[in-house]
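ugh ok so i messed up the first submission bc i forgot one of the chains. this is the corrected input, ALL of the components this time, i swear. 856 residues overall. if the numbers dont match what u have on ur side tell me asap before i send this to the collaborators (the ones from the other lab, u know who)
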Amino acid sequence: MEIIKYPSRNEWRKIIERPHLDTLALHEKVSNILNDIRENGDSRIRSYVEQFQGVRLSDLEVSEKEFTKAETLIDPKLKDAILTAKENIAKFHSSQAITPQKIETSPGVTCWQKAVGIERVGLYIPGGTAPLFSTVLMLAVPARIAGCREIIMCSPCDTNGNVHPAILFAARTAGIDRVFKLGGVQAIGAMAYGTESIPKVYKIFGPGNQYVTAAKQIVSLKDVAIDMPAGPSEVEVIADSSSSPEFVASDFLSQAEHGADSQSILLTTEESVIEKVKKEIEYQLERLPRKELTQKSLEHSRLILLKNWNDVIDLTNDYAPEHLIIQSSNYRELSEHIINAGSVFLGPYTPESAGDYASGTNHTLPTSGYARAYSGVNLDSFIRKITFQEITREGLQNLGNTIETMAANEMLDAHKNAVSVRLAKINQ
Amino acid sequence: MEIIKYPSRNEWRKIIERPHLDTLALHEKVSNILNDIRENGDSRIRSYVEQFQGVRLSDLEVSEKEFTKAETLIDPKLKDAILTAKENIAKFHSSQAITPQKIETSPGVTCWQKAVGIERVGLYIPGGTAPLFSTVLMLAVPARIAGCREIIMCSPCDTNGNVHPAILFAARTAGIDRVFKLGGVQAIGAMAYGTESIPKVYKIFGPGNQYVTAAKQIVSLKDVAIDMPAGPSEVEVIADSSSSPEFVASDFLSQAEHGADSQSILLTTEESVIEKVKKEIEYQLERLPRKELTQKSLEHSRLILLKNWNDVIDLTNDYAPEHLIIQSSNYRELSEHIINAGSVFLGPYTPESAGDYASGTNHTLPTSGYARAYSGVNLDSFIRKITFQEITREGLQNLGNTIETMAANEMLDAHKNAVSVRLAKINQ
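and heres the new structure output, hopefully the right one now
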């Protein structure tokens, strides 16, 4: 952990820098795999699964029997937790639906938007040591609410050809019909181009390693949309002497355990807070099972002392953290000034893990400063807003000359003529 | 014009294909220019302006004097038209603002979204024969409504160092403060990286040629967000024997005049419509100033006869047109079934040019089938939705075990611990 006291504004640039993920260097390698999938479909996918998962699959798709079996394998307590989380995520994302208004912009000219779910979406859930069933809920629940007609999911299987039962249970709970047993670049390629057994989708969601990120970037240049650019996870905590050092330290560590490249920073205006939090982090760290990995991530974490609350607000907005936890006593007031962040957690009893799992907000959020331009995944991510308009005869009589004048000045005479032929008919 | 009668569903794939824009082939060339701009800033930009616009600029930015002069150079009729269009665009885009709701997802757990304008946005307006002042309005008006703090614009100047007065008038009308005299890849690079005189932005909007499109793709991989992928413009018109062939032909031609690569298709279930529209297109074409260019685009336009309305709906949704004009008498009913389109124009008196200029809807729309996954530019394009949450002691007591169970099953013990330390304190 680095302690930085009263950095000048010139030094802020260094503080807000993120570890640079050079996915461009992987583009050639990843493109080759993608082209291979595009050209050879299922047969190549089976070879890749054999190579990476060590199992030869006759059927890439999870069967109904496997879904049923998965349910029997899960602890009832976990089942209940998944169901509770699902309910909360559904409540919050349902509240984001728009009620389209018809607007008469000028007499006889009516315009409106209609929100329509993206027809086919593909969710990617990485494999690895931990089964990310929470990410299944975060992506599939809003997709269902948005009205996406076909939601498919790809997730790698183990060496026995099984996908983790908690992932399958979460998928079924969220209403996903089809799950395919493959991971990595191959999964992104299969969903982007379609194969004999895996349908092509229009938008791909979900986290992944640098190869998956590179694959998403490449397919997004031409073939499908993607949720957002991805980078290592990060948290910023704001604290003062009223904050519990124990709580702050626990939030710091829960970010750090994500991986060696994840980042935690603490901002405070009180020097005593730094020492207390540092001590508490060291104490809690000793008791964590993932101690070594977490320690590595802590190496590039920073405890920063600033002069005043204005500096706290400005540095926060410059940094644009993925997660922002405000535990200082003035948290309500500070929150009014936050303009760049993914998701904000307010007060002492709102740990980031609440939003990671079960409070209802989404945990797929913009990292690496992308919060300056991107929202986290929300209901909008799964819909398009199509505009509609209807103009009456009188409406065109009113607005026709305006359109004609503008078209003529942009030297688009056929555009003008589309109005002129109609006005001529109206005035016959 | 190609006439296609009763194509089988197998032939649809061919019909919905778009001319492929291979921007990847330009990536190396464009990357070199971008790197040059990133490293050398203003001085390199001045050389590029000299090279492409043939003028050596001492100041890249449009001066207050130039804005004032521009206003005196514009026909009062055009001024009025721009002001009317601006009002309508403002009305429609203002209506898209969300009213954030606070949702109690479970007792003591409150979640909400807050819409915040992207702080710095950059608008690109291409040069060329026609001054695209309408695009200035379409991008700058919603940016202002969204509350973007800094809105800058780049547009190439002429050989005398002047930006077209209608562009400057539209910019000032829409509330843009700073306009820079440069175009092409250089403009995209300057806004993505920032230079001595041009500020870096977080999101870049606006149309452009294939080089500009490639540049936007490249900078979007790492440095800034962009509005959406771009391709040639296109329209689909649905007509029946109740439709005026004259109106349909005028809409067809107004699309065709955009450029040799733009596409128009007509869908109908009545054979007589095809002949009548074809004849009328040929008649109107003779009278258009941009006849040759328009004729070239018409070469890859298609008049398609289908068996029934179901086929019309399905092919439309498969094609996912940027613009969809429904002039058949059942236009209201058909419109209910449209799920893939950028902007839809309903009834006989609603030409596309209304939405291109002045009805209030946006004209920056997804082409090339991107309407399957993307919305056109709207108020959302200029904001982020940040999520907030606050949990009370009681809230965490209720939800804490759910979070702990899920975290433990994802093997994220520090995540679990962030809840456990709080529950321990509550239960002390």
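quick check: DSSP finds 16 helices and 14 strands in chain A. that seems consistent at least. Chain A has a mean pLDDT of 95.
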